[in-house]
Amino acid sequence: MEGFFKQFGKIKHLRIARNRKTGKSKHYGFIEFENPEVAKVVADEIHNYLLFEHNLQIHLIPPERVHPKLWRGVNWRYNPLNWTKIARKQHNKERTVEEHQRMIKGILKRDEKRRNRIKAAGVEYECPDLVGLIQPAAKKIKFDEED
């Protein structure tokens, strides 16, 4: 965007709105030129111009309507989160006995609903028993801290 608009004049600020989670563009942004006359010319000439398969809707905003925090974080770069790593950490976390029992209770409840739907559909099916209903032994030995 900066490469396209700098042909009209020197750009003071450029801000493209992005999705915080994915970093993809929200397809709108703000540009401030150093010379206000350039901004007027760009708004008149480039309105409804096709750029990157999108029609540009350009409106001139008077300086008194610009929010004071608009240009905060202009040079911020999107740093993508590793969602796979986050999900892996959440999945592999150590659970207490209560958390494990609550998880098993939900699994059994969903399994019972599934069995009832199969039976209500008139299908005669022997569902296999669930494995892992018993809390596994702790993998790590935990020692009490004694001072």
Account of the protein in words:
The strands form 2 sheets. A two-stranded antiparallel ribbon has the order 1-2. Strands 3-4 form a two-stranded antiparallel ribbon. The chain has helices at residues 2-5, 36-46, 83-91, 97-120; strands at residues 11-18, 25-33, 50-51, 54-55. It has 2 domains: 1-65, Alpha-Beta Plaits (2-Layer Sandwich); 81-146, no CATH class. It is an alpha+beta fold and 147 residues long.
Oligomer: single chain
Q: Biggest sheet: strands, sense, closure?
A: 2 strands, antiparallel
Specify Rg, calculated over alpha carbons. Answer: 29 Å
Mean pLDDT: 83
| End-to-end Cα distance | 63 Å
Continuous helix count: 4
Q: Structural class of the helices, strands and pairings?
A: alpha+beta
The total strand number stands at: 4
Order of helices and strands: HEEHEEHH
Strand content: 5-15%
SSE order and pairing:
Blueprint: H1 2-5, E1 11-18, E2 25-33, H2 36-46, E3 50-51, E4 54-55, H3 83-91, H4 97-120
Antiparallel strand pairs: 1-2, 3-4
What tags apply to this protein structure?
two-stranded antiparallel sheet, 147 residues, Alpha-Beta Plaits, alpha+beta, 33% helix, 2 domains
What's the quick description here?
Helix content is about 35%, strand content about 15%.
